[in-house]
Records
---
Amino acid sequence: MSSFCVVGSGISGATIANLLSKRHLVDLFDKAKSIGGRSSFKRLDKAIGFDHGTQYISPKSPAFKKFIKGLIRKKILKNWNGKHLFLNQAKNEKKKHTKVIGRKGNNDISKYLLKNINCYFQSELKKIDYKQKKWNLTFADGQKKIYEKVILTCPFPQLTKLCKKFIKNSFINKKVKMDANITVMIVIKKTNKNISSYFFNDKILGWAAKENSKNRFKSNLDLWTLQSTYKWANKKINKNKESKDLNSKVLIEQFFKLTGIKKTKTLFSFNHGWKYSSNSKPLNIKSYWDSSLNLGVCADWFVGPRLEAGWISAIDLFKKIKK
Ligand SMILES: Cc1cc2nc3c(=O)[nH]c(=O)nc-3n(C[C@H](O)[C@H](O)[C@H](O)COP(=O)(O)OP(=O)(O)OC[C@H]3O[C@@H](n4cnc5c(N)ncnc54)[C@H](O)[C@@H]3O)c2cc1C
């Protein structure tokens, strides 16, 4: 049995770790406090909280549809019904969209896939080195670990920083541009508008989702997740830390203006800036495996901008490792 280190607990890391664990020893590390990467769930209190990355899954490929159906059957995922308003008429996706969400949060898939795997959180990998056919890993807290095989699932800019010199494929020299997103989670007084989500046709605000319409918890307040457009976030993201209040205010104002919901006091608000949200230009490979160094990479940005892309990349990597 060889030992694998997987870095990242999003869909890509969770999928590859789960598949490898059937035959190998697997440890998983993530720099975040909890599971799910860009599908994480911001908890306010017990079950109450916000999906502040992935909003819903809309499976496209037959294999992923099958995987998602299986998780619905196992009651890990469910459909998100309700009234989804497309103010962005150009897309007109209204009819065909299925919206699948986690029963408790959109990190439920990662939780399910990683339930039997040793996971270490708040463990940021800072440096990797290859010596005597082993990977020497150094973490932010100074810990050092040795593994035979390493799989990385970080966003592209973070990957290049960590291991560019070890990757022997031209994809690593490409300029993979990952768009940003600024997300604001708010709690407001309950309104009588029975809408679950809005797609906007706006330069600033892209999407708003009413968390309590997902029927995971009951609340006498309304919880909304507001996500900016990529264009607006790309301009603001580098200074978002210093301008959180201002950027939140702009998104909240826009939300009331575009939805027509009567402006009320914001009882709670939390701003999260995603520097690397998604890449919409797929590469010409789905994952990367170097069998001489035992180094692998899988992530959504190889394949596309959605959670499904991360799953496809991880499945592809697993096939390469098995060969
Ligand atoms: C705001 C937003 C909205 C989105 N909405 C949707 C949607 O509605 N539907 C959809 O299908 N997709 C959506 N997406 C895209 C989807 O979230 C991603 O495609 C998917 O989650 C990517 O999964 P991944 O495992 O490839 O990467 P990630 O989820 O980013 O996982 C990578 C993990 O690696 C960890 N990591 C990185 N570097 C290190 C390091 N050095 N050491 C340790 N750990 C490290 C990170 O903490 C992270 O947990 C959205 C994304 C964002 C940001």
---
Amino acid sequence: MDVSSTSVKDRSGPVISVHDLTKIYPAAARLFGDGGKEKLAVDHINFEVEHGEIFGMLGPNGAGKTTTIKMLSTLLTPTSGKATVLGLDVVKDSMKLRPRINLVSGGERGLYFRLTGKQNLEFFSDMYHVPREKRTKRVKELLDLVGLTDSAEVRVENYSRGMKQRLHLARGLVNEPEVLFLDEPTLGLDPEIARETRNLIRNLSAGGMTIMLTTHYMFEADEICDRLAIISEGRIKGLGSPYSMKDAVRNDTVIEVEAYEINGGCKEKLEALPGVFAVSLENLEGRQLARMVVEDGTSLIPKVASILEGHKIISIRVDRPTLEDAYIKLVNAR
Ligand SMILES: Nc1ncnc2c1ncn2[C@@H]1O[C@H](COP(=O)(O)OP(=O)(O)O)[C@@H](O)[C@H]1O
Ligand SMILES: [Mg+2]
């Protein structure tokens, strides 16, 4: 039985299905962060993505986002667990799966700088065996879609960062993927181009494509994702719509203290207070802003003040939690 041809039309089951997926990088290159020790990068994660969804994986650097997306796009073999995309096992059925998906990673790599934008897309179309008679039309459409028609004949070495990123996206579409994986699609782009990129992603989704992306920008996840997984230290700390994430902090309060010389030691003391869920510290010019997600703001203020005794306090205020606070709380959850 040809499973692949039936699953294309089958929209009842999840498009991506992940069970206890785990990746341990072997101890090898001492050059790497934790050189000499093996690294548990993804730790028994579970989630599903439905047809046409934009699913985001949100988390800080080193959380395991790229590792996850590489396993799902068949570039990296999981250590244990199981994942299927379009009903196909990412390990056993990788050859069947590859033509039906694509991955776009940001940055400078993966394009041919000596070739023009158009030539790049022609080259990648050939890699995916797009028939010649379709190729010309497809390349033209893709250049148009990402706004590079006017620069089609310009060598990529002369492209700006934003133009390269848009070409990357077009490259990811040459095989008309049913599932598109995007690793940090707006990383390092200026705000306007990042916004255009998000619009493009939304349009692709509206056209029926299933999209899974990673980001460490909270607002981006909030703005664009139907659902998201918050990942930290290889584990999923929260899963749901951006709106439902706010449930995690619905009954909490935020205390915001602006003062001089709040250091890591103070932060640890604040974190250790009973009823404190998370503390984030931001450096302002010559002073710091500590934002604490707490159970009950009013009763905690005297304790906070006593920890910060001797520091010049500029202000203490109580605030309502935002989605960002929910994120910080979930990322910090044990
Ligand atoms: N090839 C590798 N060998 C060893 N450790 C790695 C390798 N790639 C990534 N890591 C480590 O695995 C963890 C997760 O990395 P990554 O998936 O790139 O996180 P993210 O994309 O969320 O920033 C990090 O601690 C990183 O240093
Ligand atoms: Mg990454």
---
Amino acid sequence: MSLVSMFKGKGPSGFGYGSTAEDVTEGLDLSGKTILLTGCNSGIGKETLRVLVKRGAHVIAAARTLDKAQAACDEVGGETTPVACELSEPTSVQACVAVVKALGHPLSAIICNAGIMALPKLHLQHGYELQFFTNHIGHFLLVTSLLDQLADDGRVVMVSSDAHKGAPKEGIQFDNLDCHRGYSPWANYGQSKLANHLFAKALAKRFEGTKKTANSLHPGVIHTNLARSMNPIARVALSIGAPLVLKSIPEGAATQTYLAVHPAVAGVRGKYFADCNESYTSAHGRDDAMAEKLRETSERIVAELT
Ligand SMILES: NC(=O)c1ccc[n+]([C@@H]2O[C@H](COP(=O)([O-])OP(=O)(O)OC[C@H]3O[C@@H](n4cnc5c(N)ncnc54)[C@H](OP(=O)(O)O)[C@@H]3O)[C@@H](O)[C@H]2O)c1
């Protein structure tokens, strides 16, 4: 438990800042449910894997390579299927989709957890800025390719971040996805996380009239490998301060686990959560037109590359 959690209360859901993934799944029997999770080998994804399996779920656990996915699965035991999914490579995402389809299980949830943050220099992948491409386009391709396999009451959970509030002033820079007009590690990370949220919003709209849901979330600030691109001094400061001021990894995994499996959020869609309760996005996060334009743009990008 982090120090801060001792001073933060619980919200209307009965959970809060200090709730862990184990807390939010206490008493739930997830046997018979199959959940696809990206980024299963590290940080809050690995904890999410551990807890879902502990509660009886079958987790299709995706990592950049099969070896990494296998190692994570071996560590947690239980019912898992490791799968390779390099999100920045559409052929790898398509291969992952083929594996999931071949397994044939309806998906109770897809948790889009994998991500990269604040790359110091601009990297392009297939002509697009790498954080946008990995965090958003990779997941867009994965999820849209598997919509037919989502259970009737299936849930899509997009791991966004409060960093979406630091996206460029105009929101998604549709005319600068290759950053020819400039790159900022944090603003571009924020843009990719805004895209995660807007994708959840667009999906939620598409799911209206069904029992399927899509939501996004901020997991909190947690010391994980995500900080690997930050400068070494900031990383040392983070590791010293983490137990005092940041969420622990079990606390960080709570909100995505809650959204993926808790009965209280059945039927809730198009919302942004933090600390296992509904929270607030930036104005861009409420922009339906931007969500729709992002959907069209993402479909065009995916069509170009696949
Ligand atoms: N930690 C925080 O404070 C914080 C705050 C807000 C939001 N988030 C979000 O939480 C999510 C999980 O982050 P974390 O903190 O647990 O970080 P982490 O420990 O670095 O885990 C990130 C995961 O994403 C995977 N990944 C990265 N690039 C990938 C790619 N191209 N293809 C497939 N998988 C890829 C990583 O695989 P490798 O290990 O192979 O690189 C790793 O499994 C991210 O979406 C992040 O944006 C975190």
---
Amino acid sequence: MTTTAQPPAEFAAAMEQHFIEGADDWRKVIVGLQDESRFADIYGTYAHLYTPEQLSALSAARDASDDPVERDRMRRLWFEAADAVAAADVVQAAQDLTNERLAWRVEFDGEERSVNALGAMIAAETDYDRREAIYELMCRADEEFAERDVELSARSQELRSAVFGLEGEVAIANARMGIDVAEFSRQVTEVADRTADAYAAQAATLFPELLGRDVQRPSRAHAAYVRSLHGWDDTYTRERMAEVCDRTVAELGFPLADIPTILPDLEDRPEKDPRACVIPVRVPEEVHLVVRPTGGITDYQAFLHEAGHALHFGLTSDQLPFEHRYVSPDNALTEIYSYVVERITHEPLWHVRHFGVSREQADRVVDEIRFVDASLFRRYGAKLAYELEFWADPRDPRNPERYRERLSAATLMDYPTSQFASDMDAGLYAADYLRAWRTSEQVIAWLRREHGEEWFCNGEAADFLRDLFVQGSLPSNEDVSRQIGSSPDDFEALVSHLVD
Ligand SMILES: [Zn+2]
């Protein structure tokens, strides 16, 4: 019998090349340098790697090893290979759908606009009614693609279940993350329930205040605008963003100018995705930090969040193998680092130090920032609960209504049904964010105990963080929790963050 399987090290080297090409293609699309993605074409040039024989060879290598680190490496390779094997029959449809969404245009204000252009506009639009009009257009795009989104999700889940030998995306996520996602979702819902009254009380005053209108339950059209806290734009100017953020990260102990592997891209291009991100094309050598400034404090937060990821990937040891440098079972670990760095904006002292505001003003802006954070936490908690239902049957006609009900009830904003299939991230990423919400609060409480109230600007947190970054993707989110003497079942630091 002929076999197409390669030895694990050769397979890993070839897969790394595939990932590098894929990440580079994706980066060019995200930053608006390329109007179409080619991920299916790139997949085609590597498709010969992804065979059932290769999967068998990797599981045989895993079972043959007594070394737990080696077994973990083979296990990670197997999961990545299984993703790729299962993608064969849907990757072209996924690329077509992605590119049609990128090419979608609608007229607004006499100009043709893309979904990304509308997304950037809505966050900065000061007029209430115009925000609703823009949002309606964004929802129209989602409605047009919903049926195909659902079909692709359903088909992909069927194929993946067969390749993984597991029943559905949730079972695959459980195996991959090493947690029980449904149980974790119940714990998150409990935190949301415990903090619901505090959130409702804040919402009753802050929604009308931030929107300048007596509205108790604004539509989701206003979410990005609320998040931007534009009332403070004169203080948190676009012009100072890069300089202040650079200084903030340097004071934490990581001057970006000394880390040549991190490449910031802050340009405002029309087709650039308004959602900030980090794209590690080569780890640790080439890590792109991508932010599209739309004005306001949210730009600072986006930059710092992504800087946390960039420090992680850019400072990962180049001595680690591909599986512990580039591959990760999930994103819950790296999201701890992004949250910790972003959380610096929750420190009143940071505002006093960098913006010349009084302590009283700093406390006010931090109250608003924490309200926005609580709103996002509640959104992701509801999204995870909804996504567990969605994956039970993507074609279930009750899904749009479930989405609307769960998200509206949790955030006290009125969600439409139209984004039920598009407002989802692959691989139950909502769970990764929520794991990071929990563990980052544990880490910050610990850093404050160890290094004082000025942990974020006295450089003393740097050794602890650097030791973690160097290890790449080796530890799990829950390992970090245990390392500081906490526990993955301990949500108290998060609860006090949400209600204080
Ligand atoms: Zn992130």
